[in-house]
Amino acid sequence: MKRRKKRFVLPLCLLLLLSLCAPAYAAADAPFADIHGHWAECQMTWAQEAGILTGTSSTTLSPDDTATRAMAVTVLYRYAGSPAVEGTSGFADVPADAYYADGVAWCVQAGLITGKTETAFRPGDPMTREEFAATLYRLLVDRHGVPEQVGENNVTTLADFADAQSVSAFAQDAMAWAVGDLFLSGFRQEGDARELLPQGPITRGEMIHLLRQYDCLVEGNPAQLYRFSPEDVRSIRLQQGSGLQAMITDPAEIQRFLEKVNAFTYTVQENPRPAGGFYFFADLHLTDGTSVCLLLSQNGIDHHYTEPASEGDAYFPLDWMESFGLRK
């Protein structure tokens, strides 16, 4: 499998966002209202537009609902392009006319998943986090072989999670890979401990987030990180390290800033140790009273990077930053 080399980029931020995924915001009139402002909005939108995920109704994608085993195999089957399937899965609890029948058959025949017993798939059972990671890992191995190295760009490992020992034996390699290469960051618990909750049910949002990380960081397809609506942003405080700063309140300037941020896509992600350097903070103050802090580098946001169009170019060049009126 082709491995991405670690890229050394001039750091423009000191903080590392450790959430499962960065938050995203979209226009209030989006067709699926329940993903507006959800942390997995960009990923859910991608999956829906690509025909990988369908709504639970005409107006909902239900990102916080539990994903069943039927949903999970269907999503992976559609992601693979809905290839032709020979025969059936052979499970007594998978009707031939079920929406998930081809997904079960394909995933089983491809070696991505097994039944709960020889005769039962249990399509309505919740898909656990470690089960989905294992299924996705098997897709990786099928397409690219066993990875030679895991976590090349990530200082966090499976051992950093308080419940690492609770990961089932069958999912050890998969969860280590999901943490190291897909940047699965788990959940903050009391006392600042982090847990993966491997046997817990995975939500639709978490499932699609991991799939999008795979699609981007393994298959190399650029992924959108943020989707802000100008109507949702009241002001932006832009600061260069501890020095120059600007307060952006003009709607036209807010829109100009957000157009650049929204158009940003990444193919590389890093989780480096904090280091000093030249950086920008952009604090977005939202109309609902909350705020989002972006950490901008020359070619990245929040340690997600894009390849410049040509050598010497920068996605967020200094003159663009300065055009917003940075001053002491």
TrEMBL record:
PROSITE patterns listed in its UniProt record: SLH (PS51272)
Keyword field contains Signal: yes
Keywords per UniProt: Repeat, Signal
One Pfam entry name: SLH
Alphabetized InterPro entries for the sequence: Cell_Envelope_Struct_Comp, SLH_dom
Name of the protein in question: S-layer homology domain-containing protein
Record organism: Evtepia gabavorous
Domain SLH: 27-86, 87-150, 158-225
Signal peptide segment: 1-26
